[in-house]
Design goal:
By secondary structure, the chain is α/β, with parallel strands linked by helices. Helix content is 47%, strand content 16%.
């Protein structure tokens, strides 16, 4: 049974008398967010479960407050947790291409960095002093004197033997040479040598050979002595340097708790300094310049940078565990990088150019990333999953595998990773990942689902008032009086298209409060009242409703054919919605149906020309099935019909016009005119029930606006599903027109209710004999279908008889 809705059915007011405050300045701020109990419980569960894989995906529409809630929860929890250690990278003396990751107590990274710098600075001063000291020089002299004495002793024995045999040792480049002496005590000349007979020459050569062998033996001995002397001098240098270095290293070691990695590193530093002690020696005096120009290599500059400490994570000033929000999750922002310097056309790098990523800074705490931003960046998502799965973060050159010629880059040791990752994203992205990425479900097991709406009851409205007060304080807005709060609550239901719900989309709510505050300032109000809120709503619509005005104008001018008076057969005013993103409005559309004898076919012209979406096509199939099941169930359906949205040039989607299409079809079959002063919305099922649809407020207002332009006469109205009554939050002018009897809104449960309103003729129900009453719409439809069936049968029979006569004649 159709029901005429009263003005009270069209809008759910918020009674401002329920509030016990004058303005929101008297209302305490809200602690947390409202309407998200399910999500807050899930956040608490996910943050407090440390097991691997229980990372969090926060799904919800943008602007529902999920980011603020996550930030508040994480910050509160992080403050109660331990501060993680510092992380440093130091030189690997065994393999310089793999810098060592060093973990230190909180805040001690900078201390070690400073102490190592002071160590090198002290050694540059103290070691030269050691080598210039009298004690060192004396010990050095003793070693050198012993070597020289041994050298002299060995050569003295050879010199004596050489002298006895007529030879003399003389210094030469690279050692000594043997010179034969003449009778005059001078070196033997070539003339004197040639004057000897062969026997004398042979004897002289044999003696020289013997002496040379002695000299070679002595050289071998001296090489050994020289090696031992160098070892003694090196040991002297090590001991001298160690007298300073050892104590300094131990002083550093003593300041830190037992740490195997740090201990090994300090041992390696000590050994490397002792091996490269020449870097710390004072510069030697340059020898006198040679008269002959000699090209010399420039002296090697000492590299003290290898003893530096690169602190990549310093948690010294941190209170609690870190909580990091990464707004640009590129691969290198997340995982860090090794920077390069270019000198003389060549790029080089070392451990001092390692830069930390967000994962390093969030290690031991929480990392929050926007999922959409993560997927926009190449490599980031797969690398993040790998880091979570392996519990370590590596610094790598991600492009190395794509280069034809690999570039030289160090491979820093990976750092153990203990972080809770929270992704913020849209619901559809979560469902896609869950369906197509098995690893996602293993690594992000906690779903935090933020709702965009909440129930509207007295308690929630009081909380909503506190939310408005909180947002007003956060934005430094004027206080809102109770009437303004009530109007905001009402508009919240309108945003959802549901009078029994409130929107939790805080972004849109905040925007409305800002705009209301703007108009209050323009009007000179110290407190925002209901007129300021209404001005904000009206002005917001005015800024974006140009297209709506143009469409209404074209309908008023007759360019778009929409009748709002009179009656037409097979023609119904349907209602559709145009969504412009931030603005949605209703548009009346003419739906027509034509019927003739056929073979069980209802042609959806929109589908045939590929302008009808799948849901719209589904609605046409449903009404076709309903037509066949409702009329002449024991006979074939002998009708061919066509349905179309007139003057529609874009895709049509949704099934909300399926009831209007069915009414047009019934009107054409029954030859019953339809009132053009009424418009229809609602979908149908195979039992003829009218189902709820979306955008009901906009659809009603769209037809109302056209009727208002042409003049309201009291006969215009809209037919909606009865199940949509609870969603009504219509504009004030629509309410006033209904109250004045100038416009009507009807609620129906079945197609029978709707067709009766549209035609003014009873739909009719089958009696005990299975017959519809004479004169009813359903009887007229069934009679028409019966005539179609009889004619089709007769046509088919006539065709068969004619064919038989032709066959007989043949």
């Amino acid at each position: 049974m159709a029901r005429v809705l009263s003005p009270d059915d069209l809008y759910r007011n918020c009674d401002e008398s329920m509030f016990d405050f004058h303005t929101t300045g008297d209302v305490p701020s809200l602690d947390g967010i409202i309407g998200q109990e399910r999500a807050l419980t899930a956040i608490d569960f996910g943050l407090n479960l440390p097991s691997m894989g229980f990372n969090i995906y926060v799904l919800g529409e943008s602007g529902t407050g999920k980011t603020s809630a996550v930030r508040a929860f994480i910050s509160k929890k992080a403050e109660q947790e331990e501060v993680p250690p510092d992380w440093c990278y130091v030189h690997n003396f065994g393999n310089p291409t793999e810098p060592i990751a060093l973990s230190l107590e909180t805040g001690r990274g900078e201390s070690l960095q400073k102490e190592m710098a002071e160590l090198i600075a002290s050694l540059q001063v103290e070691i030269p002093k050691i080598f210039e000291s009298k004690i060192y020089k004396k010990q050095h002299g003793v070693i050198m004197e012993a070597f020289q004495a041994r050298q002299k002793e060995l050569f003295a024995s050879v010199e004596g033997e050489a002298g006895e045999k007529g030879f003399q040792l003389r210094p030469a480049m690279g050692g000594f040479t043997i010179v034969a002496m003449g009778s005059s005590g001078e070196p033997l000349t070539e003339e004197e040598y040639n004057a000897f007979d062969d026997e004398t020459k042979n004897r002289l050569r044999e003696k020289g050979k013997q002496i040379q062998e002695k000299v070679d033996d002595i050289k071998r001995v001296l090489k050994g002595e020289e090696k031992r002397t160098r070892e003694k001098l090196r040991e002297l240098e090590r001991n001298a340097a160690l007298s300073v270095l050892g104590q300094l290293i131990e002083d550093i070691r003593a300041q830190y708790p037992p740490n195997d990695t740090l201990g090994s590193y300090l041992d390696a530093v000590q050994e490397d300094i002792l091996e490269k002690i020449d870097d710390f020696k004072p510069p030697t005096e340059e020898s006198a310049p040679s008269p002959v120009p000699i090209t010399k290599m420039p002296p090697r500059e000492p590299d003290f940078g290898r003893y530096a400490v690169n602190v990549i994570v310093n948690n010294g000033g941190q209170k609690g565990a870190p909580c990091v929000f990464e707004s640009n999750p590129t691969y290198y922002n997340l995982f860090g990088r090794m920077e390069h310097k270019v000198q003389f056309g060549a790029a080089f790098t070392d451990f001092t150019m390692i830069k930390a990523g967000t994962l390093h800074r969030a290690n031991g705490g929480y990392l929050v990333i926007n999922a959409t931003d993560l997927f926009r960046n190449l490599f980031s998502y797969d690398a993040l999953k790998r880091a979570i799965r392996n519990c370590e973060v590596k610094i790598e050159d991600v492009w190395e595998q794509y280069r034809q010629v690999p570039t030289a880059m160090g491979r820093p040791q990976p750092i153990p990773l203990d972080v809770k990752v929270i992704l913020l994203g849209e619901p559809h992205l979560y469902y896609l990942l869950s369906m197509y990425d098995p690893e996602f479900s293993e690594l992000f097991k906690v779903a935090v689902d933020f709702d965009y709406r909440m129930d509207r009851d007295p308690e929630s409205q009081q909380l909503y008032a506190r939310l408005i007060a909180t947002l007003a304080r956060q934005e430094n807005l004027r206080p809102f009086d109770c009437s303004a709060v009530a109007r905001v609550i009402e508009h919240s239901g309108r945003l959802l298209g549901d009078g029994e719900k409130l929107v939790t989309h805080t972004r849109s709510l905040t925007d409305l409060l800002r705009e209301a505050d703007y108009w209050a300032r323009r009007h000179g109000h110290d407190v925002v009242d209901t007129s300021d809120v209404q001005q904000a709503i009206t002005a917001g619509i005015y800024r974006v409703d140009r297209i709506r005005e143009h469409i209404n104008e074209e309908m008023q001018r007759g360019t778009l054919f929409i009748d709002t008076a009179g009656e037409k057969t097979g023609q119904v005013n349907g209602l559709s919605v145009i969504d412009l993103g931030n603005f949605m409005f209703g548009r009346p559309t003419r739906i027509t149906a034509r019927v003739r004898i056929g073979d069980k076919e209802v042609v959806d012209i929109e589908r045939e020309v590929e302008l009808g979406g799948p849901i719209h096509s589904k609605g046409v199939f449903i009404l076709t099935a309903l037509l066949g099941a409702r009329y002449l169930p024991d006979r074939p359906l002998a009708v061919s019909a066509s349905l179309v949205f007139e003057q529609s040039y874009s895709e049509i989607e949704g099934d909300s016009a399926s009831s209007a299409e069915f009414y047009a079809l019934l009107s054409a079959l029954a030859d019953a005119p339809v009132k053009q002063s009424l418009a229809v919305t609602g979908s149908i099922n195979q039992h003829g029930e009218i189902q709820p649809i979306g955008g009901v407020n906009e659809k009603i207002e769209g037809f109302f606006d056209l009727c208002k332009l042409r003049g309201l006469g009291g006969e215009q109205g809209v037919i909606i599903p009865a199940s949509n009554v609870r969603h009504l939050m219509l504009r004030e002018d629509v309410q006033q027109a209904v109250a004045a009897g100038q416009f009507a809104v009807f609620a129906v449960d079945s197609v029978d209710d709707g067709i009766e309103l549209l035609t003014g003729v009873p739909a009719g129900q089958r009696d005990g004999a299975g017959q519809f009453p004479q004169g009813s719409i359903n009887r007229c439809v069934e009679d028409t279908l019966g005539r179609y069936a009889d004619k089709l049968q007769a046509f088919a029979k006539g065709g068969r008889q004619g064919q038989a006569q032709d066959d007989a004649a043949t």
